[in-house]
Amino acid sequence: MRPRLQNRTALGALFTVLAMLGFASMDAISKWLVAGYPIGQMMWIRYAVFCVFAWIVVRPHGGFVAALRSARPLLQIARALLAVVESATFVLAFRYLPLADTHAIAATSPLIVVALGAAFLGERVDRARWLAVFAGFVGVLLIVRPGFRVLDWPLLIPIAGAILWGSYQILVRLCARTDPPQTTLVWSAFAAFIATSFVGPWDWHWPDAASWALLAAMAVLGSLSHYALIRALDYAEASAVQPYSYTLLVWVTVLGALVFGDFPDGWTLLGAAVIVASGLYTWHHDRRQVRQAASAAKP
Asked: What element of type H or E holds 53?
């Protein structure tokens, strides 16, 4: 007998919060390591562990060979390579910027997906969603504050990363039209590992014991966080757990303060609040439309 809906939604929320904590911890470790190790090496190790994780996940669903079959392999390759570039972009941002500032800007990615979905997928975007996108843009301006201070070029890195992440999610939607999630997971891991193999081993800095432990922890946290999100979406609808993904901003702010002594200024906090509010407004608007459509469909 399946648990009650309320309990399953609560479990979905819990797994989402744990996933965000895992991603925040992974990013804190990445920020620590990127000061002494090449980004390519870090990505190579991360995706090597991700390959093992993906292989374990797909075994009960027909195995690796079955999961590898894709109706659109070139699209899967492009999506996986874009994910590598996006991940490396954010790791590069951690070299120059505090965790909280980076993720405050990165929080615009759901709104970027709305705009890109309208432009490239033909998705209908109403006035409320466009207002949310505009509000998210205002939030970024509050963080960057062009014209009110010297624009530090590293602030452009997470903006590029957010655009790449939004583009990646659009490609995921395209892949989902023809391929099951297991196929996308396998291509995500193995195509990215092959791509980083052209970079990682050739710019190798041999880690000491402590760094090996941190590199392993970074890779394992990334894999477990992805798995936690999969479990969250198994327990609850994506729309139900989406607001809890914004706890990532809380975790990175706490970790940035405790580990690196980085405290975001008032403008950054205000900009982050505007971005989160616009995202939550979009979520609330979508759920209200779904409820209205369901009510209208009832006889």
From this structure: helix 39-58
